[in-house]
Amino acid sequence: MRRRRHGGGTIWVGIDDTDSPRGGCTTWVLTELLVEARDQAVDVIGEPRLVRLNPNIPWKTRGNAALSVRFGHGVGPTHRIGAAGGRALRAFDRGRPLPADRAEAFREVLWQRVLAGSERGEPGTDPAMVATSRRLPADLYWKAVREVVAVPTVRALLERSGAWWRTQGSDRGLVGAAASIAWGGGHPTWELTSYRTANRLGTVRRVDPLSVIRASRAHPSLFLCHDPRTRRLLVAPHTACPVLFGLRGTRPGPLLRARPAVRSESPDRWVLFRTNQGTGDHLRPWPAGGVGPYQAARFRAEVSALPVALPGGHVRLSVTTRTGRSVVCLAFEPTKTLPRVAARLAPGDRVELWGSRGTDPVIRLEGLRLLALAPRFAPPSPPMCAECRRPTRSLGTARGFRCPTCARRYPPERAVRRGLPPPLPLGEYHPTPSARRHLAPRGPEEVL
Ligand code: ATP
Predict the structure, then answer these.
(1) In Å, how far are 8, 15, 327, 430 from 303, measured between CA atoms?
(2) I want to staple 16 with a disulfide (CB 3.0 to 4.6 A). Which of 136, 177, 225, 241 is the partner?
(3) 171 lines ligand 1 (CB under 6 A)
(4) What is the pLDDT of residues 212-262, one digit of tens each?
(5) What confidence tens digit (pLDDT) does each residue in 163-180 have?
(6) At 159, is the secondary structure helix, strand, or coil?
(7) Which fold has domain 284-375+422-446?
């Protein structure tokens, strides 16, 4: 366990890496911190934040989530951010610093709460908490959502910022805990997460899909509630974690109104988070040095070869970027839409693509936009005879045509090439909703 010191103030607290594939959830641990603050009469300032980081990090447990929240002495009106133990959780828009000794004692208590809520002893669960009086530089967020960040880089930044931190196990969780505090919070969406009572953990979740569909129709700013194509309910996870359901939306108000309309087993608590979900923040223009391992990009290119259908329903697409770089992309079958669209492309088509890399240089597509399609032609047909005005007949491949009436001959290049309409309308194509990543840019949910 590491310890560092720093002075008092409003406290930004970031946490990460408290869960394992067997259970737990860092968002739930954050709710524990909110309860602790309420018990200690410390106020939440602003909104609790659920920040998704680089979705290609191989050592993430599930959705690479990190959490942060700011504490202090609230000033002015409050708003409701949740409920726990039958009592409301509230937050202030503005706040004053806590006295230094109070802040120091409080963060120690929070760390104990983080440890108590973590899946300790599980491999890969290395809880971390960062506390700082100022938000960390936004640059760290952009690196952590788009690249692989080294732990020593974060430690050095924390050191320079006078931040306090604790870890257990490796220090890896510091990356997420710090990056979550560094998120500027711009162009956000919101997620209202409802949690299960402890005695129901591990049992089948009871969430009525029809009530979710009705709530999403009544509140169109909700997104990714269910997949009309695969008929999957997307608000409830299938893992052993304490989340009962999570409603995502582009505005907080409708989420608060939609929550009571979802019929489910009785929840233990709920919290409304400001998030970077659905923002596409992990995507950036093709960097000059190329897209590195575990990075993602959004770029324009021209299709350079006919798409290749692969076993399992996947499609390989070869393109050339505007700087002349050859890139191989894969449209995976579970995305449903993307292989169908990719399979209908042809050399010369102009597209915008977005997707991610693993260790190999192939880009796994997460979406595409058809910008312009090269002309398509039907198979060539025999020309009309200029004399008789009747169709000629083919003499065989590359041998031209002959008029059956007057025997006049025509060379192969006189074949008629008729243009075909484009195979698909221009525009954006996104994966079927159940195959979208948390950070995926938002798009229509009715897909091909
Ligand atoms: P869940 O979504 O269920 O909360 P998770 O998918 O967030 O789980 P974690 O157990 O938190 O998974 O593991 C992710 C780990 O990767 C954390 O230790 C986090 O600090 C680290 N991490 C996140 N983003 C990066 C990054 N860009 N570079 C390096 N490490 C990162």
Answers:
(1) 57, 43, 10, 18
(2) 177
(3) no
(4) 999 999 999 999 999 988 888 999 998 888 999 999 999 999 999 999 999
(5) 999 999 889 999 999 999
(6) helix
(7) OB fold (Dihydrolipoamide Acetyltransferase, E2P) (2.40.50)
